[in-house]
Specification:
Layout: E1 3-7, H1 41-57, E2 69-71, E3 81-85, H2 98-104, E4 108-111, H3 139-153, E5 159-164, H4 166-177, E6 181-187, H5 196-199, H6 201-212, H7 215-219, E7 224-226, E8 241-243, H8 244-258
Parallel strand pairs: 1-6, 3-4, 3-5, 5-6
Antiparallel strand pairs: 2-4, 7-8
Length: 274
């Protein structure tokens, strides 16, 4: 298992002029690489899969600055890949300042959109959260975590994860179930709900669904919910309004992750970034 650092939420990041375009992964001169760092068929296949993923994403109606980012060294440096997982209801541009620093240090950097994030209504241009996992779909986050690990690990070298909020929960889920992960930085991870009453709420809902054949959980997908707006939020890319069911799915996923891990304690060792 990797060593995991749990950090408080960072201050709001301002999008810099530098950005990694989704259309074409950034390439550049690689630092002096270890003798073992060579392109492999597995890496080539992973890069092709990622490029196809980015090409398909460009066909979607995306909010500005919400697309996935990919910065790749060719030839590889051997230092591995850092996966940056943005906050729930936010967008990939949260890591625009961190990406070039990591890339210049020799890491490949991939910043994928979280499930259902970064979309807009083509007709109005307004954020469209309707593709977020619903109350009964929290397992989609687990499947997404497996997909992220599968692609990143095939790029070669160790995989390191940095996550914020819901993205931190995904990062921790990957680390729990994939011991080859190097290091994880989890900033304000969305895990167990502090209140005991709230913590048992998912189990109550599951019981009611068993008795009532499902209407309890599905009804949460009909109830509107929104974050309280703060000064300056108008410039933030992401969702402010969604359904209670969307938050419930994240809570159920976070509860599942938190049952197996105390993020305040190192839980093992792994290859550390230099």
């Amino acid at each position: 298992m990797p060593v995991i650092a749990a950090l408080p939420s960072p201050p709001a990041l301002v999008a810099p002029a530098w950005q990694v375009a989704a259309a074409a992964p950034v390439t550049g001169p690689a630092p002096v690489e270890p003798a073992c760092a060579r392109p492999t068929p597995t890496r080539a296949a992973a890069l092709q899969a990622l490029r196809e993923r980015l090409a398909a994403e460009r066909e979607l109606p995306l909010l500005a600055a919400a697309e996935s980012r990919l910065a790749i060294h060719e030839p590889p440096t051997g230092k591995g890949t850092v996966v940056l997982l943005h906050g729930w209801s936010a967008a990939t541009n949260q890591f625009d300042e961190m990406t070039p620093v990591l890339f210049e240090a020799g890491y490949d950097v991939w910043t994928p959109r979280l499930l259902g994030h970064g979309l807009k209504d083509p007709a109005t241009g307004q954020p469209d959260p309707t593709q977020l996992p619903r109350a009964g779909e929290f397992q989609r986050y687990t499947a997404f975590a497996d997909e992220v690990h599968a692609l990143a690990s095939r790029l070669g070298g160790p995989v390191h994860l940095v996550g914020l909020s819901g993205g931190a929960a995904v990062a921790l889920d990957v680390a729990e179930r994939h011991p080859d992960v190097g290091r994880v930085v989890a900033m304000a991870p969305f895990l167990n709900i502090p209140s005991h009453a709230k913590a048992i709420a998912p189990h109550v809902v599951d019981f009611l669904d068993t008795v009532l054949l499902g209407p309890t959980i599905s009804s949460l997908d009909l109830i509107p919910y929104s974050w309280a707006k703060e000064p300056g939020d108008e410039a933030v890319v992401g969702y402010n309004q969604f359904k209670v069911g969307n938050v419930t799915a994240l809570r159920r996923f976070g509860y599942q992750v938190g049952e197996f891990l105390d993020t305040g304690v190192p839980v093992g060792t792994g290859p550390a970034p230099e």
